[in-house]
Amino acid sequence: MGMLKEFKEFAIKGNVVDLAVAVIIGGAFGKIVSSFVNDIVMPPIGILIGGVDFKELNIILKEATTDAAGEAVAAVTLNYGMFIQNVIDFAIIAFVIFLAIKGINNLSKKKEEAPAPPPPPAPTASEKLLEEIRDLLKKQ
């Protein structure tokens, strides 16, 4: 029963719950970024380089054939276009995360740089006189 209690404490700790939330949100964010790259970024880039669709870029290593039973055997291809697509996905994700962390850091700096409370007002002339009298009495 002790192991079950330890596991429960571990699973309910804030760090584990935060990690689970981060993984779920990260998965959803990945879909958003993939859609952004595939549907918004890549079409203009494809037009700029002559209407090329990156997903279709490949090198055929072995042509498609049919085997003795008459079934089609798919071609063996080196899909370097998908690699380019994934590199661009990664670069955009990394840049967005950089911007998010930079924004969070700027917010935390602003909190740290919040104006300090104003210094207490300078003592009045009568307070200064009383302090001098106190100091003289301490010396005696």
From TrEMBL:
<dbReference type="InterPro" id="IPR019823">
    <property type="entry name" value="Mechanosensitive_channel_CS"/>
</dbReference>
<protein>
    <recommendedName>
        <fullName>Large-conductance mechanosensitive channel</fullName>
    </recommendedName>
</protein>
<dbReference type="GO" id="GO:0008381">
    <property type="term" value="F:mechanosensitive monoatomic ion channel activity"/>
</dbReference>
<keyword id="KW-0407">Ion channel</keyword>
<keyword id="KW-1003">Cell membrane</keyword>
<keyword id="KW-0812">Transmembrane</keyword>
<keyword id="KW-0813">Transport</keyword>
<keyword id="KW-0472">Membrane</keyword>
<dbReference type="InterPro" id="IPR001185">
    <property type="entry name" value="MS_channel"/>
</dbReference>
<feature type="transmembrane region" description="Helical">
    <location>
        <begin position="12"/>
        <end position="33"/>
    </location>
</feature>
<comment type="subunit">
    <text>Homopentamer.</text>
</comment>
<comment type="similarity">
    <text>Belongs to the MscL family.</text>
</comment>
<dbReference type="InterPro" id="IPR037673">
    <property type="entry name" value="MSC/AndL"/>
</dbReference>
<dbReference type="GO" id="GO:0005886">
    <property type="term" value="C:plasma membrane"/>
</dbReference>
<keyword id="KW-0406">Ion transport</keyword>
<dbReference type="InterPro" id="IPR036019">
    <property type="entry name" value="MscL_channel"/>
</dbReference>
<keyword id="KW-1133">Transmembrane helix</keyword>
<dbReference type="Pfam" id="PF01741">
    <property type="entry name" value="MscL"/>
</dbReference>
<feature type="transmembrane region" description="Helical">
    <location>
        <begin position="83"/>
        <end position="101"/>
    </location>
</feature>
<comment type="function">
    <text>Channel that opens in response to stretch forces in the membrane lipid bilayer. May participate in the regulation of osmotic pressure changes within the cell.</text>
</comment>
